[in-house]
Please model this.
Amino acid sequence: MATLLHIDSSVFPASASASRAVTETFRTTWQEQHPEGTVIYRDLSAHPVPHITAHAHTAGFADPDAHTPEQAAAFAERLKLIEELERADAVLIGAPMYNYTIPSTLKAWLDNVILFGRTSGENPSAKGTPVTVVASRGGSYAPGTPKEPYEYVQNYLTATLADMLALDLDFIVPELTMAPHVPAMAELVPLFETSRDRAFQDAATKAKTLAERLAA
Model:
C-alpha cells in the first residue's frame, strides 16, 4: 500500500489553523482509501527539525568515510529526513504564510532534504513524487490583487519542490483566513467562506483521486 508523508508547520493547533484543517481533510480522505497504508507524520511546530549547520552542510559534499564525528552525527539527522521523502509515494505539506513566506521550521526541513547529487541535481531521487501543498494565508495574494508582488510562498515552493526536487507539485490555497477576525476585513468574509469551502473540497477530491491513481 502507498505511503503518505504528511508535514504540518503551522504554529497553531488544528482548531485555529486553516492549513492544519485542510491537511487533515486530505489525510483523512487518503486513509479512507488506504486503510492499510502508511502515514509518516511530522509536526514541525511541535517537533522542529535541526536547522542546517556547517557540519550538516559540508557532510553532504564529502565522502561518508571521511566524515568527522560531528559531520557524521549531523548528516545522520539529514539522512532520516531524506529517506522519509524518498520512501513516500505522495507528500502533503501545510505551509501557512507568515510575514510573506513559509515558517522557518519548514525552511529548515527543506534545507535538510535538498541535497545536490541525491535529491536535487541531474537525477533527483524523489523525482515525480506528487506533493500537495496547502498554502493558507490571511489575505489574498492572487494575480491582480494589490499584494500580488508579496507572494513568496508559492513562488519559493515551486522553485524548491518542483524545480530543485523535481516533485509533481500541486497547490491548495485557502485565503483571506483573517477576514472573520479583523473588523476591517468584514466585507471579505463571504469570499473567505468560498475559499475555505473550495479548499476542503479540493483536499478531499485531490486525496481521493491521487489515492486511486497510485492504487491502479
